[in-house]
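ARCHIVE CARD
Drawer: 12
Card no.: 0347
Subject: one protein chain, sequence and derived structure
Cross-reference: see card 0346
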Amino acid sequence: MDDAIRKAEALVEALSYIRRFRDRLTVVKLGGSAMEEPAALRATLQSVVFLETVGLRPVLVHGGGKPIDRAMAASGLVPKKIQGRRYTDDATLGIVVDVLTHDVNAGIVRQIRELGGRAVGLHTSTLQALHGERLMLPNPGGEPIDLGRVGQVTKVDGGLIGDFAHAGVVPVIPSLAYDADGGWLNVNADTAACAVAAELKAAKFVMLTDTPGILRNPKDPATLIQHLDSAECRQLVAEGVIDGGMIPKVEACFEALRAGVGKIHVIDGRQPYSLLLEIFTDTGVGTEIVL
């Protein structure tokens, strides 16, 4: 009976959040071990189906770095990184598109349907959510750095995404954009997800990572920072707590917040049901970021 009461109390705690965010959009960026570990991915997708069932409107954006690396190795291609971004020639692009659309995206859509939800992959000529242009990195020494078929998002079809989401169908969006000539561009998944959240003015943008959130000491989960605003983030960057590849992620998050996203959450995708615990409990389990 005590266990049943605790379950009922959890439902009551969740009720106020369900009421507050019902019919509002929540963008979830899938990445890291949250996609690589079958049990973690299944728990995440169960959580997504729960969100949709109780009236929230989840939208998924994903990359697929490790599966792409494996597919490239199988084809005898060696990944090349420039300033942390994958150089994408035509051969690499073919593998990226194949893995993201036919493997990762199709697998996510299939699992959501198996779990009782409805989902659609948005990556075809008539159902393309992301549009972009080639990305050239600045080079202090002279000419901009060419990354090949690497792009940045210039337009998000918010109407297309919203139509599916509000009809109870979970949009699943790979980090690929169409350019003006109808060709594919390989886009960083974090920045793609930020662009989607910003265009939709999502109530929440949740980034699933391989850490409990933003840690004051990266080696100590007990140093989790539960709440951050822009001033505190700038201070953490100055102190070196937020550094390296995390800096552009945080900058992208604040661009999304300035565009109208309600709140951003950085959570551990490896923890079972972390998505539900973050959204439907008073304490949460990760780091929330606000302006």
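Annotation on reverse: The chain has a mean pLDDT of 91. The domain at 2-289 is CATH 3.40.1160.10 (Carbamate kinase).
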